[in-house]
Model the fold of this input.
Amino acid sequence: MVEKGHPRYRSLKLREKILEAYHKGVLADAGIIAHGRGEAFDYLIGEKTRRPALRAIKAAAALLLLAEDPVLSVNGNTAALISEGIVELARLLDAKIEINLFHRTPQRVKLIEEILKRAGAREVLGTDREKLKHLKGIKSPRATASPRGIYTADVVLVPLEDGDRAEMLKRAGKTIITVDLNPLSRTSRKADISITDNIVRAIPLLIRYVKKLKGCKRDELKKILEGFDNKKNLEDMLRLIDLQRMRKL
Ligand code: ATP
Done:
C-alpha cells in the first residue's frame, strides 16, 4: 500500500497499474521497460505538464478537430493507464479506436478490447476478427492496420509508439500526433506533433482543449496549427529538461 503523502505517490500508483496489467497478461514485459523509460523522463520534467507540452496539446486538439477521419491507436500501456480518457476523446471527436500492439498475441488483443469496451467504447478496431491490411504494401508485421481505421485515416494519435511504426505511418502519408515523455525518441522526432508529457496528464488536457476549441471555425483551428513548430517545441522541452537537471544538482 502506498501512502497518499508519499512524495512519489502518483508515480508509484501508476507503477502499480502497470504491474497489475502485466500480471493480467495485458502487457508484455517490454511494456514494463517502456514504462520505466517514461518514468525517468517524467522525473526530469518535474512530473508535471510543462509549457511546450501544453502548446503541443493545443495544436493536437486543433489538428484532431480538423481531421476528416481521425483514429486513436491504443497499445497495452495506454489501455492500462488511461482507457476511459481514450474512449471519451474518441466520442468527442467521433474518432475510431484501434488496437495496435508491438508484441501482438490474440490473448492480449482480446484483453485490451475488453478493457476498452468496459471503459465504454462502442467499437474497437484492429482485432483478430478483421482482415488487417499492410500500410502501403509494407510487408512488416508492424505495418498492419484496420482497413476501416488507421489504413484509411488521415490523422492518427499514436501514444507511446516505437520509432519503426511511426516511420511506417509517416511513409503511408499519415499525419501523426504522439504522446511520448522522451523528446529524443525516434517517434517524437518523426511525429508532426509530439506531446512530451505523461499520457495520464496529456489525455485529460487534450479532452479539455477539444471541448474548448470545438466551436471554433476551421480558419481559427488552422491558425493554431500554423503557429506551432514541432521541432522548436521539442528543442524548448530539451532546454527545459537541462535547466531542471541543473537545479537538482
Ligand atoms: P523510439 O523507437 O521511438 O526511439 P523507444 O525505443 O523508447 O523509442 P518504446 O520503448 O517502444 O520506444 O516507446 C515507449 C516510449 O513511450 C518511450 O519513449 C517512453 O519514454 C514513453 N512512455 C512510457 N510511458 C509513458 C507514459 N506513461 N506517458 C508518456 N510516454 C511514455
About this structure: The chain has a mean pLDDT of 95.
